[in-house]
Amino acid sequence: MPLPGTLPWQQRQGGAEPAGAAAPTPTPQPAERARIERVELSFSTGQRVTVAGSAVIGRKPGDTALAMGVQGIEVADDTRSVSRVHLALEVADGTITVGDLGSSNGSGIERDGVVTPLESAGSRVEAFPGDTVWVGDLNFVIRAF
User: What is the C-alpha end-to-end distance of the chain, expressed in Å?
Assistant: First the structure.
């Protein structure tokens, strides 16, 4: 039989807790993500580029980027594993999205050592700071600031 005053509905409201009573456990709240406004792409070639908005990445993305009204990021690739217009990247509403633009050699996102291929000319997927994005044989790491 429980001792008087030890059952939950017998606890004092707003007063001091009885001796030996445990403090209430706070309900965990979901971690709030920092709002991402721009990112730095750190390429395996040593190139670093800042993106705030939308960008097209490839060997020769200039004309496509101009037509779309977005930033063009030209990547030097002597092996030609990167297509002329390879990948779209967008930083908007606090999130980062990437999508393959129908490249010949594909794209992928590497997170925690696992590479997930992107659909060729498929839908865009969310990327996160610290992810490595592969474009052909080259890659870049996304860093938020």
Answer: 60
